[in-house]
Structure formats: C-alpha cells, structure tokens
What does this fold into?
Amino acid sequence: MAILNEEQTMLRDAAKGWVADKAPVTALRKLRDTGGWKTGYDPAAWKEMAEMGWTGVIVPEAYGGSEFGYRSLGLVLEETGRTLAASPLHATAAAAASALLLGGSDAQKETWLGRIAAGEITAALAVDEGPHHHPGSVALKAEKTATGYSLTGTKRFIPDAAEADLVVVAARVSGAPGDTAGIRLFLVTGGAAGLTATPLHAIDNRAHADLAFAATPAELLGETTGAGWDVLSATLDRATALLAAEMMGTATQAFEVILDYLKTRTQFGQLIGSFQALQHRAAKLFTELELTRSCVDAALDALDAGSKDAPALVSLAKAKANETLHLASIEMVQMHGGIGMTDAHDAGLYMKRARVAEALYGSSSYHRDRYAKLGGY
Amino acid sequence: MADFGAELDVFRTETRDWLEANCPASMRTPMTAEETPWGGARFKWANPDSKTWLDRMAEKGWTAPMWPKDYGGGGLTAAQARVLEQEMARIKARPPLFSFGIWMLGPVLLEYANEEQKKAHLPKIVRGEIRWCQGYSEPGAGSDLAGLQTRCEDKGDHFLINGQKVWTSYADQADWIFCLVRTDTTKKHEGISFVLFDMTTPGVDARPIKLISGESPFCETFFTDVKVPKAQMVGKLNGGWDIAKRLLQFERQNISAGGFGGAAGLEIEEVALAHVGADNGKIADGDLRARITAHKMDAKAFSLTVRRVEAEAKSGKGLGPAASILKYAAATLNQHKHELMLEAMGSDGLGWDGEGFDRANIRETRAWLRSKGNSIEGGTSEINLNVVAKRVLGLMDHQ
It folds into this structure.
C-alpha cells in the first residue's frame, strides 16, 4: 500500500533526475528575472515533461495516458516541488484533468484528455472568487443560451489560467452563494469571447491570473446536471492532495538544505549542527515531515482506491502539508541567519512559494474545519 | 510469497471461526483498568473470563503470534499476524495479555539468549505465567543510563548483586526481573551485563513510589547481597549494553504503537460536546473546537505513520527513519490530548475523589497526571530528539 511498485519507483527516479538537471531552482530565478511570471514556465521544459508522460499519469490509457494514478502523479509533483520547478503540470494534469476525468462526457474526454496527455494544451481550474478558498461560495453566473451556456462574473488568483487553452470553471445556475446545489462545472476555451485574463505578479513568480467573464460562451461539463457539487468536491480533493504532494517535496528540500548548512557552517569553532538547540529543532522538523508524508501518501492511496475516507484524508494531508511547509520555510531562513535573508539565497524563494501553496486549495483552518465537519463535530 | 491469496483467505476464515468460538463475550467489551490482564504467578484475576481467554490464546501461541512455535509462539507470518489482528479488532476482542515479557524481553531473548534460556523463559512468557519487570534506571542513571552502578560480582559459583533501581514498573507485582548490572567498574558501556533473576530471591525489596496521579505503578527496588546463578546472564559478560539498547528499541516501539492508549478512554470531541455544548452539531466553543480538531488530525497523522512504518518494515526495508521519531511524537501527542481533555471537562475534570464527580471523569483526570511521565519514561523526549539528530540526521557531537 504505502510501498511503491516498480513503475512508481522508476517514475520517481526519472523525475528526480530530470528536475535536478533541467529545472533546478536557478531555472525559476531565470524565469523571474526575465519576466516569466506572465507565462509562468519555460515552454521547452514543459514539452519535455509531456514527452516523459507526466501530463498523462492519471489519464486513462484509452485517451493516451498511462493511468498510473494519483499516487504516481504525486511522486512526480513531489520532485518538481523540491526545486520549485514552475510549470502548468498541476493545473493541467492534476486539477483540470481530474475534472474532465470525473465529470466529462465521453465526447469531452475524447476531445480534451487526449490533448492533455499528449502535452498539446495547458488547462486550468477556476473556482475561487475571493481571497480565501471557499468553493461553496461560487457566485459566477451561468445562463442557458440557445447553443449552450453563457458565463458572467470573475475568478480570483487562478493558477496558470492566463495562457490556458482550456479553463474548467465553477459557476452557478441557481441559488445564492453558499447553496452548493446550484453549482456546475463548465468548459471555456482560451481566448473565448468576453474572457479577459489579467496576469498577476505574485510573490512566487508563478503564473496566476484574475479572470473576468462577460457573457462568455461555455459548455456544461458532462451530461448530468445534478452532480455539479459532487464532481467539484471530488475534483478539489484530487487537486488538493496533489498540491500537498508538491508541497511535501518543497518542504523536504528545504529541510535538506537546512541540514546541509548545519553540517558545514562553523561558529564558536564548532559546526553549528553540534549545538543541541539546533539539533532538536532539526529533529522536530524531521518528525513533522515524516508525519506529513504519511498523510499525503494515505490521501493519494485513498483516492486511487476510491475510498470513502478520501475527503477527510485529503483535508488532513493539506492541513499538515501547510503547517509543515510553513515551519520548514521559516526555519530555512532562521537557521541560515543573515544569508537566509538575502535574495541570493534560495530560502526566500521557498518561503514565498510556501505561502502561495498554503493558501491555494484551502488554508489549514479551512481544512481543519472541514475535517471536523466530516467527523461530525 | 505464500501469504497472498487463497491460503491467507483460508487462514482468515479459520481464525474468524476460532475467535468466534473461543473469545468469551465479556472479552469483547472495552477493557477496564481493573481488568488489565498482566498475568503472572501472583496475579489476581478480576474477571475469570480474562484467564480463560488468555489460556485459550496462549494454547495457540497467539499471545506472541510471530514467535517460533518451538518456544510456544504462534509461528505466524507477518501477513497472518496482521489477519489475526484484524479479526480480533473485528469482534473488538481485548488483548489476551499485557506483558513486558512479550513486548520487551522476549524479542531480545530470541536474539541474544542461549537455547537453554530461551526454552526456560519464552514459553512461560507466552502463557503469561511469569510477570516480568525491567531493572534499568537508577537514582544516578536516568537519561545517562550507562552510568548505572548496581554491582554484580563474580563469586565463583554465583553472582552477587548489590544496588538500587528506580522507576521499576510494577516491581512489587512482578515475578522476575531483567536487570542491567555493572560487572566492570573501570569501563562505562563495556562494563554492563544483562541478568535475569527471581524477585523472590532473598535481598530483593521493591517499594512502590506514589506518583502525582495518586497511583503507584513504579517502584524503587533495592538489592542487598542477592545471589544469582551464573547461568542467568544473557549474552556475554560485559556485553549487556547492546542488549539493553536493543530492548529499548522494542520498548519505544511498543510505547509508540500503542500511542500510550492504555485502557479505552473517552473520545475528546464527545467530551467537549457534552461539557461545552453544541452549536448546529459543532462544538460550541470555536477556539476549543479548532484546537481539538488540530489534535485529532495530529493523532491521525501519527497512526498513519505507525502503519507506514509497519508496512515498510514488513516489506523488508527495515525500520525506516519514521520509526525513530515515534516515541517522541507519541509522548507529545498523548500529553496534548490529556490537556485538551481536562480543558474540555472544565470543573468536572478537576475532581480528585469522592462524591460530586463522575468516575469516568476522575479516571481522565488521573490519566492526565499520569501522562506527564510519557515524555520521561522509556527515554525522555530530549534524549529521543538527541537520538534522531545524531543517528538519523547525522548531526555531530561538540568537538
């Protein structure tokens, strides 16, 4: 269960090698320093990711994917998380692909999943409208037209949306914000009429954008109309767990950089790693990482198994990933002392990415509340 | 492996049938502290069903499912042992035996003892006939355990032991002790040996220590000219430290796996709902609810980690790095739980005894006090963090 099979081990090792070689932290710096935050990725690197099959890990073989599952995609994202590798992999192959997989009609899957698996397009999932993740509060309005639907409203801080060829949009066909029964998912193609994307220059230098829809033509995801909220919830579980996997990688790398520094930096004629105050902090951070890893693994395994425990385990995984990455990012600066405050050091990049990832798909308090509700208290 | 598929299914069916036929009804109810089945020569069984259950399970060797059959164990594979665990959990069967012999001593005897010693002690441990206690800490040797001073002198045909142990769990009720003694005063770690002896031997005196919880699970244990047959030393003379450390691993592993659970306690969210009240089904105090939830999530993270460590161990990768953090994490978690429990109970949790307080609440309050020892016993949290820092993370000593 928790143990990787041979395919998974190969996938992870290949990802580890490629990331170290092609997408080290210096690649993010380069992107940042050349205005790359508008597109958010290096097209050549993205092409190689697709060629290695990463965009089709959860896509069924019938649509050209490998169907290795969520745990497997988590392994890849963990590796890209280690070096803060910027790409639309999560938005496309985890978030949007999950929505299509779970809610799409055969025709929609045929049209879009194959192109995602082949790396021909990028896609995004647009849910939140305010500063906090709160999917039930969707207000963006969907109205029926002669040929489909028309969307009007806004979305806030959507990862990899500005350049996306396809945006999966949560919108409301009835009811008021908070009423989940009125929520449906829609497909909007990049460059559709009335769609305006405003790229945001955020602290993590990834591509986030605000979206405005003005009578934008859209297609309902799937043929059934009643299951919008269920499909959205299940999609969010997958996107959230996979983001937690990426965060696990980011936190693990931050810890390893800290540990390396403790073993090389000298003060008072001693390696600073010999000081018990720092040893204990390192040991506690290590403890948190191990506990968090168990949660992330369990959440992804539960999704692959179709377990009814998956929603609670996903909230557990994201809350723990939030807390642990938060701690790791703070310790990364503090344990490096002054050098950790400089732009030349990577600590700042890790901390900035950490806060963005912590907020995306729900803060710790959001997921704690959800966990308690699912537990009946 | 033969464990998979049909054969394991057969084992599961047989096990299920046997448990159904042999587990007494009262052994399928939550265990109370009074009915904890410690066994041993002097044990008074509060519930006769506990003894029946123990005897039936011991007959199959299922009190120590994975020990070899030659020594009374169940001879099960890891997969079969897991099935047994699952099937016991399915009918909510109580553990048949609580035993330091099974948790700590047995595993090191299997590894370090000679054939005669194994034959002499392991079957009795399996059957719960002998209750063991652990002679480790001393007044001057707590965290620095290897500084122990209890002397063991070679008197030709026997050893002579003089000294004092402390925090000896249930020494006043135990039949035998596994004990660390100093056999060479010129060396530290290399001067320690591991001996076994009968607690009824003349010169052994165990005195219970009253704790802040009002209970006395621990003793100070004095040895005055205690004669021990030389055949009762396990391993080599002055070779006891390796055994001692190995046993500590089992002790910490066992503490961790149980998460200091002990007898069935109350569920914290239910306590909070009952004492604080509910608001639309939620614990009415939002701040307390958030902190309880955070704790519950940490507890879940911990149990998932225990499961992951077990899975990794069974896959033959040995104990992964997660294993070493478990004792520290378990202690922190359990103490946090009890603090939250006390807070949730409010004044209902501030009773010591007598009228006006619910028995279950008093038990929780006593458990809260007892839990303060969790970060001290079996290696303090600080020592465990040292172990993680040095052995797992490779951080170095001061030069």
Remarks:
- The mean pLDDT of chain A is 96.
